[in-house]
Amino acid sequence: MTIFACLVCGMPLTGDLAETALSDEPSEQAANDHGVPVTRVRPGRFAVDPEPFGPPYVPATDDPRVHVSDGPRGTILVNPHDVHGLGPHPDPSRRNGCCRLDGLDGPNLVCRGCGSEVATEQSDCWVSWHDLRLQPAAVTASRRAR
After folding, report:
1. What is the pTM (predicted TM-score) of this model?
2. What are the beta bridge partners of residue 3?
3. How far apart are CA 80 and CA 30, in angstroms?
4. Which of 44, 46, 52, 100 is surrounded by the most beta carbons within 10 Å?
């Protein structure tokens, strides 16, 4: 089991979570009726994404007109219901989206203990998943035996 905490102030950001493989399948059987994307991570679990996520965006090698993420690798996906101690980023330009947060402008959630940027939520109506990603350079992981 693992608890994630803010690297700067040590405030716990999750309860005990067990690692699982990252899946492109939703953790719920169907999208909910309110247009809210479903999450890929079941409650009580986390998954590490080896691919880059978020800014900066760079031209793709096969088509320079297309930009792809060159952000941090190893972001930690958690179920949005498993986090606590987070608040909205004070910079409104980080909280863009149509209906909810699109997560394209960098971390949009901060630690309530110290204000450090610790996570990015993607939950807007046009995204495929409701992902909440902890920034690997902003959190610590404390592993505990089951």
Report:
1. 0.88
2. 142
3. 17
4. 46
Instruction: Report mean pLDDT in 10-residue bins for the chain, 146 residues.
Output: 97 96 66 67 95 94 94 96 96 91 93 98 86 96 80
pLDDT at position 146? 62
Q: What tokens appear for 78 in the block? A: 């958690």
111/119 Cα distance (integer angstroms) = 8
Q: What string of DSSP letters covers 41-107?
A: S-TTEEEEE-S--SS-EEE-SS-TTSEEE-S-S-EEEE-GGGB-SEEE-SSGGGS--SSS---TTS-
Q: In this predicted structure, what is the pLDDT of residue 127?
A: 81
Omega of the bond prior to 50 within 30 degrees of 0, cis?
no
Give yes or no for a contact between 145 and 120, defined as CB atoms under 8 angstroms apart: no
